[in-house]
Automatic annotation (TrEMBL):
This is GTP-binding protein. GO terms for biological process: cellular response to starvation; negative regulation of autophagy; positive regulation of TORC1 signaling. Residues 308-320 have a biased composition (Acidic residues). Keywords: GTP-binding, Nucleotide-binding. GTPase involved in activation of the TORC1 signaling pathway, which promotes growth and represses autophagy in nutrient-rich conditions. Belongs to the GTR/RAG GTP-binding protein family. One of its GO terms (molecular function) is GTP binding. It comes from Kwoniella dendrophila CBS 6074. Residues 1-20, 291-331 are annotated as: Disordered. It holds the Pfam family Gtr1_RagA. SUPFAM superfamilies: P-loop containing nucleoside triphosphate hydrolases. Component of the GSE complex. Residues 1-10 have a biased composition (Polar residues). One of its GO terms (cellular component) is fungal-type vacuole membrane.
Length: 393
């Protein structure tokens, strides 16, 4: 269910061919590190087993994806250098560096390259966020994997500390006093603490979790959405609430309550396996006009719904605001929902929240049985809240 590059659009047509509203993410790394695989398996729905057949990326490829924040991911070819960018590096909000963790003989060199790129980019714009995907982790044994992961982080920090800042051309970075030791210490500290490391593999959910950190890093509205989710969780006596991007299976926000990486991975896994079956029971309804450039269909399920989602009284059609996904929503239409009893005491419930967002709630089975009505009632407020946040973005 990939959203196609060419169709990718937004609610307003005028924005359709214009990239300027998209957050740009630059993906860099050694040849064959797995850059294209990291992007295409998550954002174009290409199965991991097809990864060995990807051709070598010959030139920069831009992949548009519409989520809570519309993004554009730049996949780069091997031997790519920053000066080959056709736009200023300032245009990017994040850089993802992919490093093949099984290449222990060459990764030192790759780390050096990353550090050099990162310092140049940081000095141009300190707001750009850096992520390192330490990739192909499934190949190594657990012990060896942990050791490599720690060593890569340690080496990266050391290289940032040892970098000859004073040798940088000062006219190019005139905002910085690179002769000043304090300035340099500040740069070093910022860089070391800013990098987000993730161990990833196309064969498990770690890659989606890593992308989740990248996307969350670019969501200005994240704290607002998180607090709505937290409110919902506590009013519904649930344990945890997750907001997912349906097509990529990436978590966009959680209530952050007692959350652990293990839990996120389990829920991500659940969502992926559930969505693998969605074709079996959905009926597909064609929208009159697609609101977010994605496939022109919305999955809705006929059973198991209370149908109390129709809170669309405030009619947005009578003003000139750009159209949002909710304008194409039929208030009487029921949204896909599903619940699974994982263990006797734990239930996971899922609702399709917007054409491209799903909400997953983890709660005690007895709470689900006793309070489902209240929970779905609370859900209408949560939806409205999220909708308000999205409509001002
Ligand atoms: N074992 C393993 N191999 C991977 C993984 N991701 C990519 N690869 C392999 O790495 C090779 C290079 O991948 P590609 O995405 O083309 O790398 P790029 O040159 O950085 O774009 C391919 O042969 C893939 O099969 C992974 O998570 N695990
Ligand atoms: Mg490639």
């Amino acid at each position: 269910m990939a959203r196609s590059t060419s169709q990718a659009g937004e609610s307003s047509r005028s924005r359709k061919d214009d990239d300027s509203h998209r957050q740009k993410i630059l993906v860099l790394g050694w040849r064959k590190a797995g850059k294209t695989s990291c992007i295409k398996t998550v954002f174009q729905g290409i199965p991991a087993k097809e990864v060995p057949y990807f051709g070598v990326t010959q030139k920069i490829e831009k992949i548009n994806y519409d989520s809570i924040v519309p993004i554009q991911i730049w996949d780069t070819p091997s031997n790519f250098e920053l000066d080959q960018l056709e736009v200023p590096v300032n245009t990017f909000s994040a850089v993802v560096y992919v490093l093949d963790m099984q290449q222990d003989d060459s990764y030192h060199e790759s780390i050096l390259k990353f550090v050099h790129l990162m310092i140049r980019i940081h000095l141009i714009n300190p707001n750009i966020k850096f992520h390192m995907f330490i990739h192909k982790s499934e190949v190594l044994s657990e012990d060896y994997r942990g050791e490599n992961y720690a060593e890569i982080q340690r080496t990266t920090s050391e290289e940032i500390e040892d970098f000859p800042y004073k040798s940088l051309p000062s006219q190019q970075y005139s905002n910085w006093d690179l002769e000043d030791q304090q300035t340099i210490s500040l740069i070093i500290n910022n860089l070391i603490s800013d990098i987000r490391y993730s161990m990833t593999s196309v064969h498990d959910v770690t890659l989606k979790d890593a992308w989740s950190r990248v996307l969350q890093g670019g969501m200005e509205m994240l704290p607002a959405v998180e607090s709505l989710l937290l409110d919902f969780t506590s009013h519904s006596s649930a344990d945890n609430t997750f907001l997912f991007d349906i097509n990529s299976g990436v978590i966009l926000a959680t209530d952050n309550r007692h959350r652990t990486d293990d839990l996120s991975e389990q829920v991500t896994e659940y969502l992926s396996s559930f969505l693998a079956f969605r074709d079996l029971y959905k009926h597909v309804k064609r929208l009159k006009s697609p609101s977010n450039g994605e496939a022109e269909t919305v999955t809705k399920e006929e059973t198991n719904v209370d149908g109390n989602e129709g809170e669309d009284e405030d009619d947005e059609d009578d003003n000139d605001e750009p159209r949002g996904w909710w304008d194409d929503e039929d208030p009487d239409e029921q949204w896909m929902t599903q619940s699974t009893r994982l263990m006797p005491n734990t239930t996971l419930a899922l609702w399709q929240f917007t054409p491209y967002l799903a909400l997953v709630v983890l709660l005690r089975t007895e709470t689900w049985q006793a309070r489902r009505g209240t929970i779905e009632y609370n859900l209408t407020f949560l939806r409205q809240g999220v909708r308000e946040i999205l409509s001002v973005v």
